[in-house]
Amino acid sequence: MSEPAAEKKGSGWMTAAFIGLIGVGGGVAGTYATAVVNQVVKPTRPVANFSISTDGLTVSCRNHASGDSGWWDFGDGTPLEPFAAEKPIAHVYTKPGNFTIKLTVRNYFADENERSVPVEIATGVKDAPAPIVTGFAVSPVGSHSTAPATFRITADVAHADSCLWDFGDGRVEVTGGGKIDRMVTFDKPGTFAVQLFALTDKAAVKQATTVKVDAAPVGTLTAVLKVTDGGNWVVRLPRTESVAIPVPNVKNPQPFTKLVQARAGFTISDATLGTPTVPGVKNLKVAVAADKRSLTVLGEWAGDPKAVHQAAGGSDAIIPVKYTEERITPLQRSVTMVTGTLTTNGRCDLPLPPSLQGITGATREYQIEIRQTRATGPADVVARVPADGKGSAPFPWQAQAGTLKFGATLDANAVVVTATLGK
């Protein structure tokens, strides 16, 4: 049975039920009652209209429909979900892909209308795999592991939401996963258990090793490099939104514009039109505002409005837009300490920590201290640059303390510190 025939059957049934309810029989009275129902009681035909936006595996549908009942079909084989007038709805897909969302609405007299909108789900998976840690290694920087001693930790962490570090000396940190290359310095002698826990909300994987730090002999010269990194952390989120443009019902319609605002705290870095093309529209484009807080979809109607209305499949033309939202937040300045043992007329190479990724406006400052171990109490600081501990050291750097001359140069991978016996 065709859709119009089905609608006619449903509408006739409802009309008969209403006539029976008010107690009107056949003949002229029945004819009169049918006219009343069709012209006065019968509501307007329902319209299935909605717009969508995606965030990872989640699609949100903003309802612009009219109707008394209906259902949503999200095109992924999941059960139909009931329609509620003027109420938005969200659906989570189990995997990326291209789907079609269909809304069907109905009034009390069984008149139906439906609309289908394609959606692209680009990221996310249903069940995240367990974390994997490979290449976990902890090695001393330099040939001596005397306090303060720096160790380099490397690992490759996959499928982890976060990493929990326990260094065995009271320090606990939480970081991200991925490729890990970091420096950790132990100020005091001892044996420490270094543990890495790669975590998700459902699983955890542990890697551990032990490091031993010896006490430095009296008179030991230690070069201490402090590297301070700063900048702005950048988060970029790809988004897809179906922009609904009302189809005009007048001749010679005017060009249209539709504004899409960025979410609070975000700006829009780029925007492009998605596919498929929209019938009945020409000169379609999208522009990002100068302040990047919004984008505008612009275009012109082409052809007969009735034909455009029919091609759109409803009262709105759906224009897919892909854009990237960006949030920039100041990064808390991080300090990495790298140490090495100096000998008279010798040198030590202090490797630089990797530059921070995913930041803009990166800054890096260097401070150097030369310390000498005493029999008791803290080590003496025999040379320092900058002298007041503020700002960044100039390179090359030279200083003298008693009969010792110190120097430092900066290359791409390390700060090279030297100590020579002078006059």
Compact description:
This protein is mainly beta and 423 residues long. Helices cover 10% and strands 53% of the residues. The strands form six sheets. Strands 1, 2, 5, 15, 17, 20, 21, 23 and 24 form a nine-stranded antiparallel β-sheet that branches.
What topology emerges from the helices and strands here?
Blueprint: H1 3-22, H2 27-41, E1 50-55, E2 58-63, E3 69-73, E4 81-82, E5 89-92, E6 97-106, E7 112-121, E8 132-140, E9 149-158, E10 162-166, E11 172-175, E12 178-186, E13 190-199, E14 204-213, E15 221-246, E16 256-261, E17 267-273, E18 281-288, E19 294-301, H3 305-312, E20 316-330, E21 334-342, E22 346-351, E23 359-372, E24 380-385, E25 397-401, E26 404-410, E27 414-421
Antiparallel strand pairs: 1-2, 1-15, 2-5, 3-4, 3-6, 6-7, 8-9, 9-12, 10-11, 10-13, 13-14, 15-20, 15-21, 15-23, 16-19, 17-20, 18-19, 22-27, 23-24, 25-26, 26-27
Helix pairs in contact: 1-2
